[in-house]
Amino acid sequence: QKEVEQDPGPLSVPEGAIVSLNCTYSNSAFQYFMWYRQYSRKGPELLMYTYSSGNKEDGRFTAQVDKSSKYISLFIRDSQPSDSATYLCAMRGGSGGYQKVTFGTGTKLQVIP
Amino acid sequence: NAGVTQTPKFQVLKTGQSMTLQCAQDMNHNSMYWYRQDPGMGLRLIYYSASEGTTDKGEVPNGYNVSRLNKREFSLRLESAAPSQTSVYFCASSEGWATPSNQPQHFGDGTRLSIL
Predict the structure, then answer these.
(1) I want to staple B36 with a disulfide (CB 3.0 to 4.6 A). Which of A15, A20, A64, B87 is the partner?
(2) Phi first, then psi: what are they for A102, rounded to 5°?
């Protein structure tokens, strides 16, 4: 079983819809939770990170962490065709120096105009 | 502002050949990383450099070596390429080791490497 599970999609939604992207994880030591966006044939870009449980909002994006359920979500409001990309969740935690970042395999999102 | 620059963008090698992937960042970041991305596997860390002068193994270091040439540059070398090393390679950087910045923040656009 992978430490981080993410539905690969693809997920197709009409423009303006609210998008919900999710990941589950098994390692209770994870404390930092990240979302990256990756356009086709480009490198990932860090969208948001949150520490521990709770919500964090940045413009049209909201990241949500539920540590009790080991479940994280990224919500995109008023989705735009420019949001079409693959979204990677990632997480890290533990004690000591370098905390390994574990990535999900990504969910491909297509926003239809 | 270029961010993280990787060269080359594409490369085809024969089994047993060697090559070096180059990476440079212009953001004065302390930490740099090399990842590979394979279908269904997610990004996996090959090597990282917490700061200039230090390098450490990640999850999948076998068959690779790295050099942190200076604060800006971090290269990845394949000494004897194997078909299993066919992948997309990404270099990344982050401000440094202090949380919450201890995760890759900026990625290059990747090197697509095929080993025949």
Answers:
(1) B87
(2) -105, 125
